[in-house]
Amino acid sequence: MKVLLKDVNLFSPDQNIDENSTSVLLEDGIISEIGGIKTNDANVYELSGKYVLPGFFDMHVHLREPGREDEETVITGSNAAANGGFTGIACMPNTKPAIDSAEVVNFIKEQANNHLVDVYPVGAATVGREGEVLSPIAELAEAGAVGLSDDGVAIKTASILRKVLEYSQMYNLPVIEHCEDESLADGAMNEGVNSTMLGLPPLPSVAEDLVVSRDMQVAQYTGGVVHIAHISTKNAVQFVREAKSKGIIVTAEVTPHHFTLTDEAVKSYDTNYKMNPPLRTQEDVDAMIEALKNGTIDCIASDHAPHSIEEKEQEFQYAPNGILGLETIVGITLSELYHKKVLTLKDIVEKLSVNPRRILNLSPIKLSVGEKANFTILDLDAVWTVDISKFKSKSRNSPFDKKLLSGKSVGVINNSKMFYNNEFINI
Amino acid sequence: MPLSSRHLLGLQGVPKEDIELILDTAHTFREVLDRPIKKVPTLQGKTIVNLFYEDSTRTRISFELAEKRLSADTVNFSVSTSSVKKGESLKDTIKNVEAMKVDMIIIRHSAAGTPYYLTKICDSNIINAGDGIHEHPTQALLDLYSIKERFGKLKGLKVCIVGDISHSRVALSNIFGLKTMGVKVSVCGPATMIPKRIEELGVDVIYNIDEAIRENDILNVLRIQLERKAGEAFPSLREYAKYFGITKERLDKNGKNILILHPGPINRGVEISSEVADGSDQIILNQVTNGVAVRMAVLYLLGTLN
Ligand SMILES: [Zn+2]
User: How far is B271 from chain A (nearest CA, A)?
Assistant: First the structure.
């Protein structure tokens, strides 16, 4: 089938491509022509003013399958990803059972087979994510895991972390760390004046700082590769910045909620503001923005964490951590970073596509003739209102319902499929 | 003039006029309680539910007495941990309670914010009888009442709250209420029991109990929770008593007839020595009658709002 994307702005900073008002012809999902195209046998999409970009990638997603299919499945999560503007995601191993065997990696890949969205499992670093025994890292790598993590918790001890960092190097797998010192981690919100005023058990920012700092040192010692997941404190960012300047191989991601919201939001006791790491202070938010600008933070990831309504509708301190993210991350990023002139479109493409793929050692996307079409199509100026009832995700736990945003994904293309106007089409 | 809110969730943000109104009304009811017939018909026909997720016989009985004195119909609903284990959610429990056509819910719960949550899911007036380590507004109002009773005023006084501030809902409610009434508030206890950045609430932090005694008119001494892992927040009860306990020598040494409040029951020899506990008019233990009067005032003012 032939598809013509007409009158688009083609933008791929990686390849120095920046062409306005051009057209792209796809044949059976492959880019066959770029330029002023004349054709009468293609399905034509009038996309005047829209941007065709390398497909976006969210490297921190919880799909809940296997184990909690009532909250999300590989398919519903992938649908949410497509709806949110992503053509690829990496899913975290805190499923039940954990992704600590080749069987579970294969199971997830089978579920995702034939979908527009590419799903890359992240393997558990240790068996059952319990921090005691190395998971079968070579087998996980062979089955297709793209990273290792005990996400939900940090890798338990420096000793096992060291081994994971040494072993993973043989297979080019980054170690994705949820940085939180276990002995300090029994709180429900960020420690500060607001936790005192709300009477909620406090979780100190030093719990994150400690593990980031530990990881930087063990990474330096072993030469291993660490990626800091959902970074959220001013100090942690500072540690990463210093580590990078020393040549330690480290990268970091931040979530939209950590660069837009503070612990003030918890005053509503709304459990949609409960996540881990918790929302921090304005000083931390400012540090996230600065680190996005100066490149200390390499990418933006959602930490998409679906939870059932029953579980979220509990007393704040008993409710589980986490919120949905896949279907709001692009809108929030464009509203808060692009339109507020924190980042350029080039920066955003790097943080939502180029860098996460590079961190996970996935091949770069090329917008060139002969290449497979893997695109995210953005309308930078579309003003829209988040409506959780329209989410493709199986869950509804988003604090961004009814939020007015500027800029959204209008469609994605990958694997000879297109998601456009709320439907999947084979192309 | 009515109260500005139809719930009492805490003393944070409650205006001075409201606190004054509650204290004045409590004073009226205090007189009623000295009469031979202690009952007034004010809340006749109203149904009040005492929903207790935590055991607290003293607080529950105080509310219950207040309700009965106001002629309200009272339902006690103690949610045993077993029904929580059975998996009934808070929301379902509240819906069941509300189906009984209740006008007011008094709630005690181990989780902060639960009373606030109730205001979102039901129409009754909600009174917080203690939520986690957040607030316990009626206990603080009782403390304010007792201080005012003794000094004839609140404004300009200096109060120090002594003990485990981090885990005390009474401390937090006291801080908010006292500050609103123009009282200078400080806290005193081991650094491990003082919340980080509490200065931002406008209170001073004192680590020396002698200084706390010298600098203040009133000490509000919290009960040390013996079951809370001693040895973690402070080295031992012995050390706590030695450095933060209120003893006769300490009071004499600092030469001041300071007023001491304690919610009781006292851990003798820990936060207060027996000698002080038994001595003189320097100490005010939990005042049962005042507690009932204050709760009557709150129930009355909320129950007759519309
Ligand atoms: Zn995590």
Answer: 23
Q: What is the pLDDT of residue B279?
A: 74
Distance from CA of B110 to the nearest CA of A (A): 9
Cβ contacts (< 8 Å) between A269 and chain B: which residues? Answer: 112-113, 116-117
Which CATH number is A413's domain given? 2.30.40.10
The DSSP code for A427 is -
Which residue in chain B has the smallest CA separation from A191? Answer: B196
Contact A258, A280 (CB under 8 A): yes
My answer on whether A234 and A329 are in the same domain is yes
For A199, which of B91, B135, B201 is closest by C-beta distance?
B135
Q: Please judge whether A199 and B113 are an interchain contact, meaning their C-beta atoms are less than 8 angstroms apart.
A: yes
Q: Residue for token digits 């809340």?
A: B43
Give the pairing type, strands A404-414 and A375-385: antiparallel
Q: What letter represents residue A289's amino acid?
A: I
Is the confidence at residue B81, as pLDDT, over 60? no
Tell me which chain B residues have a C-beta less than 8 angstroms from the C-beta of A200: 112-113, 132, 134
B169 touches A: beta carbon within 8 Å: yes
Residue B80's pLDDT is what? 67
Residue A34 and residue A101 in one domain = no
CB atoms within 10 A of CB A306: 29
User: d(Cα B278, Cα B272) in Å, to the nearest integer?
Assistant: 10
- Interface touch B196/A199, C-beta < 8 Å: no
Q: What percent of chain B has pLDDT over 90?
A: 70
Separation between Cα atoms, residue A351 and residue B203, nearest integer Å:
44
CATH classification at residue A232: 3.20.20.140
Catalytic positions of A are 303
**A320 and A417 assigned to the same domain:** no
User: How distant is the Cα of B257 from the closest Cα of chain A, in angstroms?
Assistant: 32
pLDDT digits (tens, 9 = 90+) for A129-183: 999 999 999 999 999 999 999 999 999 999 999 999 999 999 999 999 999 999 9
Q: Which CATH architecture has domain B137-285?
A: 3-Layer(aba) Sandwich (3.40)
Please tell me the least confidently modeled range out of B29-33, B101-105, B231-235. B231-235
Mutate to test the interface with A, among B79, B84, B88, B89 (most CBs of A within 10 A): B89
What are the residue boundaries of the structural domains of chain B, listed by start? 16-135+288-303, 137-285
How far apart are alpha carbons A12 and A118 in whole angstroms? 20
pTM (two decimals): 0.93
Tokens of B58: 């003293």
Domain B16-135+288-303 and domain B137-285, same fold? Reply is yes
List A residues 252-281 in contact with B (Cβ-Cβ < 8 A): 269
User: What CATH code is assigned to B16-135+288-303?
Assistant: 3.40.50.1370
Strands (E), A326-403: 375-385
Q: Domain of residue A189: give its range.
A: 55-359
Global ipTM: 0.90
Q: Which are the contacts of A92, defined by CB distance < 8 A and separation ≥ 6?
A: A60, A61, A62, A63, A99, A122, A149, A151, A152
Per the structure, how many domains does chain A have?
2
Whether the CB of A20 is below 8 Å from some CB of chain B: the reply is no
A185 C-alpha to ligand 1 centroid (Å) = 13
Which residues of chain A carry a pLDDT beneath 70? none
- Claim to verify: residue A83 and residue A158 sit in the same structural domain: yes
